[in-house]
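A reminder from the course coordinator: this example appears on the midterm review sheet, so study it carefully.

Given structure:
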């Protein structure tokens, strides 16, 4: 076969591959940007893809990202290194530090707040200010140590003036939190405050109706209590928070004893 005919066959094959989705119900993905390796959806499920973005090419050669590189991270440290320069929302331009999370990467318990504050933004670690010190005391009083649990926020960047997160900021950051939870796979999650509860559970119910119950977030068991910052403003909420934490501890102990 002469080289001209071979080039024509290769060109026709490449065109067929790029237009796969036009003619078939399945999907064909191009893995990576420099290796040119090709995989079908079925093959992706049965093999371990490399850690590069998966793209889908349409009839006109336009590429659509189907999976981003960070989605293939195999550890929290790797994930952090891949997303720490994120600019998917406007907060990337105003933050001092990206606040990923801290604690035991294999923790049974994950504690989630809404967003970093000024101290967290300055130090790059969640819950290190006055609210964080109170959270440490609450955990210790309940029988948990800060280093044994994993602590993070829904947002990884501080909203200016500590305002509530905007919906678009939550939507941009929540996939990162979901990936953190997949890597940790905790037994129980503690949400701190109304904003965190509304953001993850998609509810508008008041905090008092959400407390004292076990909720579900993508298969993980979730409980809710007041944010420590709220306790600093309203000390009379400390008692119900303590009741929440006793219930949280009892449910956790029941979970580990039934293994």
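Designed residues:
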């Amino acid at each position: 076969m002469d080289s001209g005919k071979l080039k024509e066959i290769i060109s026709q094959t490449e065109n067929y591959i790029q237009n796969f989705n036009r003619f078939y119900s399945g999907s064909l993905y191009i893995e990576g940007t420099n290796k040119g390796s090709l995989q079908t959806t079925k093959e992706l499920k049965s093999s371990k893809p490399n850690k590069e973005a998966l793209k889908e090419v349409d009839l006109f050669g336009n590429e659509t990202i189907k999976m981003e590189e960070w989605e293939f991270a195999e550890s929290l440290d790797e994930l952090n290194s891949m997303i720490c320069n994120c600019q998917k929302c406007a907060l990337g331009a105003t933050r001092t530090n990206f606040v990923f999370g801290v604690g035991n990467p294999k923790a049974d318990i994950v504690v989630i707040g809404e967003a970093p504050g000024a101290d967290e933004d300055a130090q790059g670690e969640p819950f290190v200010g006055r609210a964080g010190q109170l959270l440490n005391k609450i955990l210790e009083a309940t029988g948990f140590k800060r280093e044994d649990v994993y602590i993070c926020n829904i947002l990884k960047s501080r909203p200016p003036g500590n305002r509530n997160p905007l919906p678009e900021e939550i939507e941009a950051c929540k996939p990162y939190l979901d990936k953190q939870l997949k890597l940790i796979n905790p037994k129980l999650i503690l949400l701190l405050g109304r904003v965190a509860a509304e953001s993850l559970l998609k509810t508008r119910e008041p905090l008092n109706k959400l407390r004292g119950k076990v909720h579900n977030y993508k298969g993980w068991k979730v409980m809710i209590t007041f944010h420590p910052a709220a306790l600093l403003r309203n000390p009379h909420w400390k008692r119900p928070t303590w009741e929440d934490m006793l219930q949280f501890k009892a449910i956790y102990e029941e979970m580990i004893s039934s293994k």
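The beta strands are 28-31, 37-40, 54-57, 63-67, 102-103, 109-113, 150-153, 188-192, 215-217, 220-225. The first helix runs from residue 3 to 18.
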